[in-house]
Amino acid sequence: MLSVADALARVAARFAALPAEQVALPQALGRVLAEDLAATRDQPPAPVSAMDGYAVRSADLTGGSARLRVIGRVPAGGSFAGRVEAGTAVRIFTGAPVPDGADAVAIQENATVEGADVVLEGAVASGRNVRAQGLDVRAGETVLQAGRRLTARDLGLAASLNRVWLRVRRRPRVAILGTGDELVPPGVQPGPNAIIASNNVTLAAMVTAWGAQPIDLGIAPDRADGLRSALGNAAGADLLLTSGGASVGELDLMREVMDAPDDADGLAFWKIAMRPGKPLIFGHVGGVPLLGLPGNPVSSAVCACLFARAAIEVMLGRPHHPVLSSARLGRAMAANDTREDYVRARIERAADGETTATPFERQDSSMFRTFALADALIVRPPHAPAAQQGDRVQVMLLSPDGLAV
Length: 405
Description:
Layout: H1 4-13, E1 20-24, E2 37-38, E3 48-49, E4 53-56, E5 65-74, E6 88-92, E7 104-107, E8 111-114, E9 117-121, E10 130-131, E11 142-144, H2 152-160, E12 165-169, E13 173-179, E14 183-184, E15 195-196, H3 199-209, E16 213-220, H4 224-232, E17 239-243, H5 254-257, E18 269-270, E19 274-275, E20 281-285, E21 288-293, H6 297-315, E22 324-329, E23 340-349, E24 355-359, H7 368-373, E25 376-380, E26 392-397
Parallel strand pairs: 5-6, 13-16, 13-17, 14-15, 17-21, 19-23, 22-24
Antiparallel strand pairs: 1-12, 2-11, 3-10, 4-6, 4-7, 5-9, 8-9, 18-20, 20-21, 22-26, 23-24, 23-25, 25-26
Helix pairs in contact: 1-6, 3-6
């Protein structure tokens, strides 16, 4: 059996970043930048006031108080054509450009207006209450890097840089096909021996959260001709995900209908040393890369979190390795066998910031409810020794980056 790391490397090697496309700024949320985003001018473009008050020369207030003649007024978006000279001040508002000659702003709370003059109390250091030109970004500076998944905050930053269009990676098209005569779609009254199919829904939601476009191909029967016909509907997809038919049973037909193993587009691997998810296939059908996931819903979802997401991330120009973090173990765990374990767990964060991962007591792969309730998967390498409560373990969060997985 192939190790998880080797299988991930083989999957990632079969994909490349997709071409870029241009989208309007409001439609870029969650998309992945295809090029670095640089500022075209300083922000702010000139020194501006950080407070309402009076633009002054700090040298005029070294004595602790001063009476200054008010020679003008400058609101945000306006300007003052003159110059602040010794003994003068300009009324200024937050965001307004600081007039020439002034090097500080005295806040209005310390000011008393007396006719054409203002009396200011307290010394003001040079630069006080002034936002320097380029304080936020400098012209030519890269502010967002290619490969970044854009957040609402990123869109606001892009807007402040006067960008209304962004170049992002095209969304990968991911075809999804369930297999099995026993399956019926949600909403259909099941017969006594039928199983309500959930994998298509789960996988479509996952790939959507990861930035891809799902294409639901429905459910194929356990017949080679029907399966071939359904797989043909994936033409033009960037990735095909199937669930079921990947094991060794008489009706597990996925390997039979794939491209020939000796073809460059044929079978790349079968069987992974992991739990859940041992019967995983990777190859091609009609030139479309295929990940044949197990039919068991938990196994299918866990394998998708590793391998389908890796393929999508590569196509989006992002790192494809799963991000692992460290946590304290909330319950003792027995020694592991020869397979890499992905154990469903709840995450709790204490007031001191310490994270605890507590595995569900039962890990049967038929129990999808525990997968839905899990926050993370505890990753245990092959032959890991028994672990005690409080030991440190590695965990893979199921919803990293705020993604709704």
